[in-house]
Specification:
The chain has 151 residues and is mainly alpha-helical. Helix content is 43%, strand content 8%. It contains six helices and three strands; from the N terminus they run ααααβαβαβ.
């Protein structure tokens, strides 16, 4: 039997490096902030060829802050998939928005682009502003799409 997720295998090659970084964090007691986080932010910003990077404690915070930075606010709507981990919809809710679900493709388990297109066509008519909603259950402005990639 092949395990669904083998966390040991994915970290085996990095074990010595991860152990040393953990050891340094223990010795410095800089679990939040500190030089290790600052160095990570600087190196990752350079890797991404951008000026800034902000390290956060988890993916939920990363999604929430990205939504807020993108201008998502109370009453807005964000499209995502129904088969995502709860953190996706939690981040949408924490940003003040409402999740709207578009189903997945049965073969890829990722957001079905055809279903997304159908939803958007139904929601926005071509003869009025594309920001005017015509979906009966829609109450807010559609602000973002989080097409979660699984597997």
């Amino acid at each position: 039997m092949i395990p669904f997720l083998d966390l040991q295998a994915q970290h085996r090659a990095l074990e010595k490096e991860l152990t040393e970084v953990f050891r340094q964090a223990l010795l410095s007691a800089s679990f939040i902030g500190g030089t290790q986080v600052e160095n990570f932010e600087k190196e990752f910003a350079e890797f991404c060829e951008t000026r800034y990077c902000v390290g956060v404690s988890n993916g939920t915070d990363a999604l929430r802050l990205a939504l807020i930075a993108a201008g998502v606010k109370e009453g807005d709507e964000v499209i995502t998939v129904p088969n995502t981990f709860i953190a996706t919809t939690e981040a949408i809710s924490q940003a003040g928005a409402r999740p709207v679900f578009v189903d997945v493709d049965e073969h890829t388990c990722n957001m079905d682009p055809n279903k997304l297109e159908d939803y958007l066509k139904k929601r926005f008519t071509s003869n009025v502003s594309r920001f005017t909603s015509h979906a009966s259950r829609s109450t807010g402005q559609l602000k973002a799409i989080i097409p979660v990639h699984l597997y």
